[in-house]
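Let us practice reading a record.
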Amino acid sequence: MMPRMGIQESVLSLAHGLGLGALARRATRRHLRILCYHGIWVTPGPKFGNCIFIEPEQFEQRMARLRRSGRPVLPLGEAVDLLARDDLPDAAVVITIDDGWLSTLTHMLPVLEAYGLPATLYATSWYSQHRLPVINVATEYIRTVSGHTDIDERAAIAAIEALPIPERLAALRVFGARLGVAEDWLETRQFELMSGADLAEAKSRGLDIQLHTHRHVEIGQNVAALSQELADNRAFLAAALGAGNLDHFCFPSGSFHRDARAMLEDAGIRSATLCELGLNAPGSDPLALRRLLDGRSVGDAAFDAYLNGTLHYVAQIVTALRRSA
């Protein structure tokens, strides 16, 4: 996962002062850069989810910055093939988006279209099928903004998820009302995922849709579920999207397990991404590709340093410093 920004920014400042950016650019020019986003925060009031929901202005500024950089932005499948052949254009970038939040369609896709940037969405599908807000994320938001730190969040989530599906939204609203949290999040559909029809529209507008498990299962804790999760996810997306290859995968929450490899290969998966910070050199394992998890706490300097390769080495230095400490 990404190092804490305080230590990271200090090392970045030192690297900049020493003029290491140019060295990093040359050393990593054949490495693949992969950016990771989730959704957009569209609800009035307190912001929530640093790396889950980026603000719309920041996402637009990021895409503008990327376009101005002149770096080639490639579709995921093409980039994976070129990386395997060590034939990438210099400093190539891929944009990935996890989960399939509705704001991907309403706010991210128009920005990508405006800048002519290809991107891949890894879509989890249970909530898309059942048309509910994502209970655990909405519950965490309600408890956080309410300030009720004494609430047992896991117990609240478990109680709601134990109910029949048609009763869960009402129970979530009762939970919010009990903690005094307004329902702006419900009106903006902040915690909803794209429906099958939404995903089909996004695909028709050029967004690549790929696999992310059906129930957003963390594979590191439940690798035995992976094969069925892939099958259920693929079946839903194939029904929604029609013809097309579903052969790229993202580990939910970046939760990796070494036993996943055989299941991914059996399912015909060509690449899989993590949430681990880093670049991907020629010869990198295509089933464990590293990314930059972008978010509100990621400054422009860190974003630029990832693109020019400096952050790749800074992360390694920070990890070594922490281990020695």
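A brief commentary: The radius of gyration is 20 Å.
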